Each structure stands twice: as structure tokens, then as C-alpha cells.
Amino acid sequence: MNIRKLRKEDIDLLIKIRMEYLFAEKGVYSSEEVQDIRTKLKEYFTQHLNTGFIAVIAEDGNEVLAVAFMSIVERPPIIAFSSYLVGTVYNVFTYPQHRGKGIATKVMTELLAEAKLLGVAAVDLMATEKGKPLYKNLGFQVSNYTSMNKLL
């Protein structure tokens, strides 16, 4: 098993992985939606991969076993940090046939190590109930704040 950060030459693979994740989460998309999402993903990954976005995969040969994504933004400085880079983890996914083998832990450990190298000071995520034990084992703590969002 190989765990690695994705690079520009992996953009097509990254799009494939993201689309599989979206299908697993939502289900069916129209062909127009699929094409629109693919186009937007290619633009986004081309512009942001390894600058404001990192992705780590576990693979065995040509088979992807698990993946995790992180977007990185700079927030206004706080007293503890003169430059306050914050990562948001999402799209943590292990293919069903590879679950329960500790692969997501290895992928997340590598993702966090990459974030630290980039100077990320804090990492946020929203966990499902199934994911909470993984994140707690990696040192994440439940926040006193409630996550809320509004679509615009």
C-alpha cells in the first residue's frame, strides 16, 4: 500500500474520486449536472491543487483504497499565530471493501503532516457518527460551537 499526496498530473484521478464520493453521498445526477461538476472540478483542482487544497490517497497498484481532502484558507491573525492558516477536512472516504483496516487513519495522518508542513495552525472538520472515533483518535476535539450553514 502506498500513501501519497496528489499532484497536478493526478487531476483526472482526483475528479474521478470526487465524483464517486458525490455519487455515494447523493446518488443520481443528470448528465448535465455530471458534466457541469466535472468541468468545475477540473478548473478548481487546476488552480488550487497543492496551493489552497491538498488531497492524500492510499492506493494499492492502480486501485484507490481511501482518500481525504483539505482546503486551506488564511484567516486574520490571532495572538498565538502571526499567520493563521486553517484547514478544513472533507471527503474522507474509504471504499467499502477496504474499511476497518486502519487505512483512513494512515491517510488522515499523512494529510495532517502535509498541512503542518504548509504551516496550517488549526484543522476543522465535520464528522459523521461513524467517523468520530477516527478523528478523536487523531486528537480532534468536539467544539463548543455548533456548525451551521446557509446556502446562498
From TrEMBL:
Please list which residues make up the signal peptide. Answer: none
| GO MF annotation: an example | N-acetyltransferase activity
Q: Which InterPro entries match?
A: Acyl_CoA_acyltransferase, GNAT_dom, GNPNAT1-like
- Looking at the record, the residues that make up the N-acetyltransferase domain are 1-152
Please give the CDD domains that the UniProt record associates with this protein. Answer: NAT_SF
Query: Which superkingdom heads the taxonomic lineage of this protein's source?
Result: Bacteria
The name this protein carries in UniProt is N-acetyltransferase domain-containing protein
